Each structure stands twice: as structure tokens, then as C-alpha cells.
Amino acid sequence: MPDTSREVTRHVLDNGLIVLLKEVHTAPVISWWVLYRVGSRNERTGQTGVSHWVEHMLFKGTEQFPAGVLDKAVDREGGVWNAQTSYDYTAYFETMPAGRIDLALRAEADRMQNAVFDPDEVESERTVIISERQGSENSPTFWLFEETRGAAFRVHPYHHQIIGDMVDLQTMTRDDLYGHYRTHYVPNNAIAVAVGDFETAEMLARIEELYSGIPRGPEPPRLIRTEPPQQGERTVRVEREGNASYIFQAYRAPAATDPDWFKLAVADSILAGASAPGGNSIGNKTSRLYKALVETELAASVGGGLYPSIEPYLFNIMVTVRDGRTPEEVQAALDAEIERLYNGDVTQDELDKARKQAKALFAYGTESVTGQAFWLAFSENFSSYSWYENYLEHLEAVTLDDVRDAARRYLRRSQRTVGWFIPVNGQEGESA
């Protein structure tokens, strides 16, 4: 089928709402996203997890669409809808048959200003979210991620989990949640994106009709807590019940707007296999770490990840130690592979293959109108939608010298935090 997509057009309504529109006429489907520029990095101590909780509350109804009504309506019209909270944003979407998209437009306009936050629903959802965290706590890697990231970030709010600290989930009030909603869910703090089978002029006119009357709010306060420079390697050891040992290694990484981000992304593809937001993967069996750790039966699995973030974040490597092996020997083999790249041991063939895999993964994640709409909103949040449009071009521009330079500057031991999970099988701590 021929590609009948058109260029992205960007519009800003008088109330500050950014609107991105892209016509794609390959199928009679439209995806509609509304992304708010607020996530876990905007949360102060005492209110960690508030962004995720507010996301839950927006599914609990408004006067126009009481709880449960939209679930049935979207399903009846043949659509899907959902939401997600991350470090830098909270986003809501509906992907619908093109002739039914008006329901999504009306629903998000209503939820932007009229969510009820019924006190009884707040308390009910408190139980749900606490249970969600408790369910995550059953996984050893949850504790390892939390402790390692907490050690990596001592000042910046990236240090806490998106779901929040248990003590805050137990003590936050309905007013805390509603105040967060009223502060951040304003049109001048939002990005709206439509991708799919529509005519731009008609879509923009309908969006203006539904959204232009929503009052602009005060500019939300920005929580600025810059992480100070790291002065040496940090180590974390988590000892809890479990069936395997894990290594979680986190290096300081640049923000997505830094030209070095793409250099490190290619290094990530060489080391651990290409990665992308949302957990998309095309496999990593040709990566260096898979060959060095899994094929040699030191590890059961290995993976990496570099997240496009507003502020400097982390390049992560996760290893599951194979039964019968020790974290010490796996760590030594892992360090040897990092040292190879750090010392510039990389070939043009490896670079070409890594770029090809990273490009393939990006294409895989953006082939649907839902994926395209997400990436447009996601990129506009920290930079511009052009970051998404130029993604492949930036990857192609990375040279062998770029990868070597990025490895030397970012894969330094002094700039990493290393976490080990050690199963204790019911025995707390170490013996005397």
C-alpha cells in the first residue's frame, strides 16, 4: 500500500495548547493523544507517585462521562484507550475508527477540566495503587532498581520510582491529588496530537471548537533540583529473598537534546542491543554482552537501555546471573566488555550493524498511527516533534569516532552506580 502520509503541522491555540496534526490515509483510523508536561520528576518529597495516582483518577469519571461510561463507549465504537505516566510526562490516548474519533476529542477536553476526584474513589484507588506497588515488590528487580537509582540520584527527583514511595501513597490526601491536577492539567501545559485518516483543516477546527474555551492556567511551577557531579563509583547491595542474583549497572547519560545522546544510543546498540521507550525490542543475540555473558553461560539474560529524557538520566545494563555462577565473575566479564568499548575497540562493521538494528527498532515502534502519535507528543515534550522526524538521520550521522568518544566520556567507572541483588532465601543479612 502506498504511503499517503503528509507532513506534520504545528498549531498553538490562544490558551497555549500545542496541537500537532499528521494525516495518514493508509487506513480509516485515527490516534488522539493528550500529553501533560508533568511526571514523577515534578514531584516533591511527600507527594511521590502523585502523577501516577492522578492518571488513575482521570478514569473515575466526570459529570458528563461518569465512571465506566467511556470504557463502554470506546469499546462499543471499536476503539482502544489507555494512559501512561513516566518520569517527564503523563499521557492519555484513544485510537478509534476515523468516523468515531469525536468521542475521544470530547472525552479528553472534558477530562482536562472536569475530573471529579470523589473522596470515596480516591480511597478506593489508594488501595489499588498500594496493591500495585506491593505486587511490584514481589520482584527482586524492583528493589534493585529502586535502591540503585536512589543511589545514582541523591538530589534530582529521578531518584524515586514513578509509582511513588509507600509512605506517600499511605498519607497523600484527596486535596493533594486534586491540587496536582488543577495545577498541571491546563492547556498551556499540554500537547495534543492526532495522527491518521482526517483532513487537517476539519480536524483543527473541531479541536479549536472543543479546546479553545478551556481557560489558560498559571504556568505550573518547575521543580528544579540539579543533580551535583558524581565524585566516584557508587555501589549498592540488596539482600532479600529470591531465586537468582542480578546486576544492575547505571552510567550517567546525557539528556535527549544533547548531541551525545545519539552517540551513546549507538554504543548501547553495540553493547546490549537496540532499545527504545516502551520496552520495544528486536532481540539482542548479536550484541557484545549477549555473546560475552549469555553464550558463555555466565548469565541467563542481559539487556540495556537508554531513555530519551528531559534532563540527564542513566544508561542502564541489567544482567541475570546464571545459577551456579557468582556475581563477582559475571561482573568481571561485564567490566571487560565495557573496558573494550571504553578503550575504543569497535569496528566499522559493528557500527553499521548497530545503527541498522537501532533504525529497525525505531521503524518497528512507529509503524502504527498510535506509535507515531506517541513519538510526536513524546518528542515535543522535551524538544520538538522534529527530534522524532530526524531520529533516523541523527543515527545515520554517528561515526566510529563518535562512538569511541561517547564511550570514553560516559562509560567511566567514576560515573556509574553498580547494584547487586543477592538472594538470602529467608535469612536476613549476613551471618556473623
Main sheet: strand order: 1-2-6-3-5-4
- Helix content range: 40-55%
How many helical stretches?
16
Q: Describe the biggest sheet?
A: 6 strands, mixed
CATH classification, class level of the largest domain: Alpha Beta
| 3D shape | globular
Q: Segments where pLDDT lies below 50 for 5+ residues?
A: 427-432
Can you identify the CATH superfamily of the largest domain?
Answer: Metalloenzyme, LuxS/M16 peptidase-like
Number of strands: 11
**Distance between the ends:** 69 Å
**CATH level 3 topology of the largest domain:** Cytochrome Bc1 Complex, Chain A, domain 1
Can you write the helix and strand succession as a string? Answer: EEEHHEEHHHHHEHEEHHEEHHHHHHE
**CATH architecture grouping of the largest domain:** 2-Layer Sandwich
Overview features:
432 residues, alpha+beta, Cytochrome Bc1 Complex, Chain A, domain 1, 6-stranded mixed β-sheet, 16 helices, globular, disordered C terminus
